[in-house]
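Sequence only, no structure available. Ideas?
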Amino acid sequence: MNASFNASIAVVLVEPAGPRNVGGVARACANFSGGPLQLQLRLVAPRCDHLGEEALQMAVHGRAVLEGAQLFANLAEALADCRHVVATSGRGEGEPLAPLDPDTALGWLWQGANASSGAASGPCGATSGAVVFGREDRGLSYDELQLAGQLLCIDTGAAYSSLNLAQAAAVVLQRLRVVAMASADSPTRLPLVAMPMDPARRDRLEDLFTAAESLLLDVGFLYPHTAHARMAKLRGLLQRSQIGETEVALLRGMVSQLRWASRHRNP
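Reply:
I predicted one. Tokens follow.
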């Protein structure tokens, strides 16, 4: 086994409403964590008591994972220190990226997470990447899906395609463990996506989008009532390109210089 392949992956639940679901996901994290793969749980604005009796009963031996879960106000904060993010989605249409099968998406996540595992971590502790699961009733919004580098879709029967949150997490984390163990034995066995493997951290991308939107509003390229829709197209473009830290720094420099020029231009 190649010991150099190790990564910590955050399992992110957005506004989970069912305590038993949260406990079930914590249990799945404990089931599939170990060896090269270390899983941690992050909860975005949970709508239930994640440390209540029902959650603890479902967690069983995943209680330590549940008690160690980190809480965040929104998804952007939960992903701030992550470079490689896979979000689960069952929409099928109107998504910012084409959904991939689990092994391909998780192969991209795993290799990328290992490549950046030595990078400095953010305030949330060391992590290499994240898998995001949406709300039980309506999944992830379009804006939230745009925070991911890849989308994952679980193949189910057409008659009833909806999966319980804990079930979906168990399926995905089991496949992630298979990918992790296979790559530890033989890195060449990973199913890869043909794109750069070292995208920028989410917090730096979000800083770029914020600065760009402010500039484009100031110079009149964007209008308040259409800014969100037009910025979504820009986000989609950069997401598909999977730009890295160097490209983000270049674009931030351009935005800063253009802002200076717009404020000091001669009549």
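The first strand starts at residue 7 and ends at 14.
Hope that gets you unstuck.
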